[in-house]
Amino acid sequence: MTRLSRFRILLALPAVGLIFVFMILPITNMVDMSFRTTGTTGPFGDAYTLGHYNRILGDGYYWGVLLRSLVTAAMVTLLCLIVSYPIAWHLSKARGTKAVVLYACIASPLMTGVLVRNFGWMIIVALNGPLNEVLLAFGIIERPLRLLFTQGLVILALVHVFIPFMVLPINNALRNISPTLTEAAASMGATRLDILRDVILPLSFPGIYPGVILVYVLAVAAYVTPALLGGQMVSYMPTLIISELTGTFQWPLGSAMAIVLSLSSLGVVILFTAMTWKMMERSRA
Amino acid sequence: MATVEVTGLQKRYQDFLALDGVSLKAKTGQLISLLGPSGCGKSTTLRCLAGFLEPNGGDILVDGESIVSTPANRRGFGVVFQDYALFPHMTVAENVGYGLRLKRLPKGEIATRVYDVMKLVRLDGLDRRLPKEISGGQQQRVALARALVLQPRLLLLDEPLANLDARLRDEVRWLIRDVQQQSGITAFYVTHDQSEAMAMSDMVAVMKAGRVAQFATPREIYQKPTERYVADFTGEANFLPVSQVTGTGEGSYRIVVAGTDLEVTGVPDIPIGWDAELLLRPESLSLVAPDAGTFRGRVTKSAFLGAALHCEITLDDGDVLRLAADPNEQVSAEGKVGVAIDRSHAWLMPKVAP
After folding, report:
1. B174–chain A Cβ distance below 8 A for any pair
2. Distances in Å between the alpha carbon of A245 and those of A55, A154, A240, B69, B252?
3. Which CATH number characterizes residue A76's domain?
4. Of B48, B135, B218, B326, which one's alpha carbon is 20 to 30 angstroms from that of B246?
5. Residues of chain A found within 8 Å of residue B51, distances taken between Cβ atoms
6. Which residues contact A282 (CB under 8 A, 6 or more apart)?
7. Residue A156: is it exposed, middle or buried by C-beta count within 10 angstroms (0-12/13-18/19+)?
């Protein structure tokens, strides 16, 4: 081994060390735990079992919660994409001071702590909160809307906070599209809609892809927002897992659920990648 | 297959006037070059024609009808860009057929027309490649094919050869001219290369700071420029200061230049007292015996270039002439020579157009 390559390995060491200690080890630990019997004296017993997986996969209740988690995350991702694309478009056209101000506005949801942000939502949508008061005052509704502890509110709040993760990569991709392509398409008779469909959208796909993946995995794993804004009536995988871990101390079952969730969302990511592979290949100019 | 008339075209960016009253006329099937240095407004003019820019004043008539309020996608003009602007995610055939697909033509007809035009520009066999998989010259021809396949009324080319190397440039240049002439499409061609403009065009518009300095045939632009700027931009040129200009008829003058009385032709109606110069192209000058010819001077520089011998002659009154002499001519540095001029190619013109 040359001195240079040894030096390179040395440079990678801190990152590899961090990932090993804080990711590989815990995940290994968790996988191991998910196959253990429920413990009576410690977090888990000594014997191995497939029981937890059998229980999860054999019980319609868990399937329901898992499906709700995956579908909700998909809806969050889709809505986030729809909301973010025009913002990214606008941002990609901005230059100088205007661009800086826009970047700051777009990053603003991330500048508040997760608890503050969610309590903010709770206050805004409360039965006697400002939103209902405004709607009542204008006579748009007759009785206050019950928005808190609904799936809709969870989706809305998640879309709001994930917008930056969608906007920034799409903005990047849009900035890389040469403006003469738009003009060329127009000269061939393309309307604005044709240009969006045939040129801009496919060529911005290298930005849409990472945005979708980021938002999807973040939404699947979101805990605080569903827990605070979703209430006790609707369960999502992360809230259920936490209640297994901290409520009933069923660590092996909780681990198994976490692994099922991770593998499911990985499966969705792989499916999405496979479905869009051709498009990605072509748009990587 | 269209006549084009541009009148008084203006384009303003904040306080910068990019186009300051551009007027041009193209007959059906002509190729018009817009020639000038960067920033002269040639691309801006083309972009106004294409509909990518909205002029602030003036009008553009195509076949007698104003098109300034028609959006780019309804003008039906073919545009070839300097960077080709090929869609990187579409194959060559998809790029060429895109405009036809937008017209919702049947698939079979699209395929035939794409095939025909690709054969015309010698791209056959490349239809399934992506733009990044073909060479620059091929990309250029895809861009041309893509514009031609729609049988446009007008073909607009924005420095289409600028990104090609010299050999390819020559080849594609003739291809463009051939195809344009065969199909009889009226074309506008933006370039900063005077030899390109001269070789290809029916008419050349030399542009200067947002205006057309001269709009004429390549021959006229070269031999009878309206001012020094045009002469300078269209090739090698000698300018001699003149004095005692007297008009002797429409476009003919008697002048004194380098101590010699001469009768020459020139730009008509140069105002009396206006700063004027005599244009002498290097090829209208020849070396003769020291006591013959119109001017007398010394050879101060010479360079043998194979096909010609480039000489710099300093005249007795200090003016300098550059000329291309017969390569077999024997010149000695500091040797006395005479310079004969071909009077029909001497041209009197104002330093700056009045």
Report:
1. no
2. 16, 22, 9, 68, 104
3. 1.10.3720.10
4. B218
5. 186-187
6. A202, B88, B89, B90, B130
7. middle
Q: With a CB-CB cutoff of 8 Å, which residues 148-187 of chain A face chain B?
A: 178, 180-181, 183-187
Enumerate the H helices of B51-104 as residue ranges: 92-102
pLDDT at res. A1: 58
Tell the residue number behind the tokens 């100088």, with chain if given.
A96
Q: Kindly provide the ipTM of the predicted complex, given to two decimals.
A: 0.87
B224, B240: one domain: no
pLDDT above 90 covers a percentage of chain B that reads 65
The conformation of residue B271, written as its DSSP 8-state character, comes to P
Range of the domain at B222: 4-228
Q: What's the pLDDT score for residue A228?
A: 92
Q: How many domains does chain B have?
A: 2
pLDDT digits (tens, 9 = 90+) for A163-205: 999 999 999 999 999 999 999 999 999 999 999 999 999 999 9
Residue ranges in chain A modelled with pLDDT below 50 = none
Task: Give the number of domains in chain A.
Answer: 1
Q: Within a domain: residue A31?
A: no
Chain-chain contact of A202 with B89 (C-beta, under 8 angstroms): yes
Which residues make Cβ contacts (< 8 Å) with residue A165, sequence separation at least 6?
A: A211, A214, A215, A218
Q: Does A278 touch chain B (CB under 8 A)?
A: no
Assigned token pair, A189: 């008779």
Domain housing A256: 50-283
DSSP category for residue B131: G
When CB atoms are compared, the residue of A183, A188, A191 closest to B98 is A188
